[in-house]
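#structure-requests
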Amino acid sequence: MGLTEREKELLVEIQLWQERQFVDFPNDFINTFDHWLDDTFARLPEDIQEKFFNQLDQWLFTIQSIIQQSENQAEKIQNLLTEARVKYNKIEMISDLKQLPIEQLNYFANREKSNYQLISLIQGGVSGSGRTLLLGIDIPLMITINLRAIQNIACSYGYDIRNPFEMMMALKLFHAATLPRRFQKQAWDDLIAEVKDKHDAYFYEGDEKIIDEKWSLHLFTQILKSWAILIFRRKKNEGVSLISLAIGAGVNYQMTKKVTEFAQRFYQYRLLLEKSQY
């Protein structure tokens, strides 16, 4: 069947996006920080490192499992299928969405991007109020919001996130999207290689490890954000600091914007690769 003219144009857009996205010029500070981070982890016993990263992986698996079991997620999938049947009445399952024009799938995905960027903005502002409880659950909420965004974008392009292979891809995609730019090219290539080389359409047969020391910088950034919110909150004698609200909302919004853009490009590219092989 091959690609339509619009799909060929989109493929060029994605290639241009990759050229912009994966260009990074680390400065002396970044290089020094990288060396410090590597040295810090190198000093830790291997069993401590393994336990730390395994705990983070388990945390992600747990959050994803909770999302999968929620009624809201099931309703979201059914609503998407119902809406898609208006355009093509033979759609019965998520994978059938791939039969729709790419512009229709982009519409579904762009809507999810906008919704979750707004949710992230509001959630970040609430956390930016500086209240201890809200600030304490900020990181788990941000992970939940962004994982749900990835899952819904995946469904928008016809990839059923209830499939074990797709569940693992969503987690690895979240990891790749939240890495510093200088590490994203390798993570992107690894993701594309996995979907090209998969032998089972349902089960995942690759490496199930997700988090590594490179992702620690993202965690460090989130902790730094919380620290900045607390500092500006303490400088206010009454009410809520507008600066802390701006920090919380701004950082969370930018993170979700980056994650959703990365996820959309990945699923677009993956779909076009599949179609080009027909």
